[in-house]
Amino acid sequence: MGGEGRRIREIYQGPKPLYKVYGKYPLLYLNQLPFFSLWNEGEIDEIIFTVAKWNVSKKLIPLLPSFPSQLYEFFLSLHEKYDFIEKPVFDWNKVEVKLIVEEERLGRGGSILKGLKERTIDKNQKYLVQQPDDLVSFDLKKFLKMKEEEFAALMFCSTYFQSPFGVGVVKDEKIVRFEEKPKVQLLGLNNERFVLFTGYSYYKPELFEELLNQSYTFPFNLENTLIPSLAEKGRVRAIYTKNWFSLNSRREVKIVESYPEKDLIKILYSSNI
What we know:
By secondary structure, the protein is α+β, with helices and mostly antiparallel strands. It has a single domain, classed as Spore Coat Polysaccharide Biosynthesis Protein SpsA, Chain A. The protein has helices at 27-32, 36-40, 60-63, 67-81, 107-118, 140-146, 205-212, 226-232, 250-256, 261-269; strands spanning 20-21, 25-26, 46-52, 96-102, 127-129, 134-138, 153-159, 167-171, 174-179, 193-203, 236-246. The strands form 3 sheets. Strands 5, 6, 7, 8, 9, 10 and 11 form a 7-stranded mixed beta sheet that branches. A two-stranded antiparallel sheet has the order 1-2. A two-stranded parallel ribbon has the order 3-4. The longest helix has 15 residues, at 67-81.
């Protein structure tokens, strides 16, 4: 899922997940590299895309029927090309692809709510949520351990380095609150640290139940509605990324593409090692 992709439209007019980094790697593919072991071990058996029909490039609508086949093509062709990534052993016939189509602007939280009401998203299951704006690497073993612990949401975060936006305040791996444009001198007080949300998260049924039981004004995002209230209850955990690359604009894409392409893929894939 993702936002409107306004900033990247200066260099790309199509659906953002299909933007090709270095002119060859779809963001859709690079998003998955840190989680490749989960795919290979059969822990991922369903993919859900949120796709907007409002105010987007005319290229988007004809792509809707072919989205699943394009996804398979991305994974299979690219994994076969690079010998430093082991060949996938999972059966694509067991992976179900679903779409949540936004007829009007809903926001990331709104699209999840729509999926729950349509039963495209099963409120009793756990989901890894990704946004195509960012690429991360992290400790996969720690994630596998943490995902079994008690929480409503696990947020993939980068340690704070000063930001003009709001940040999460973490204490003992729990996000305890959110602050807008905090002052740098507040860092380190009471064993707290500030973190930035990278766009990756892991949601459990508790979060979906809370989402279904509240009312919202569309469009809305979970990060500034439900997640803060769950954090106050101690139900949101943080896991730190090792690397974080944002691709929201021409400038950020240029920074990412300044890396040798094989090095970037190895950095993302290193989560599996």
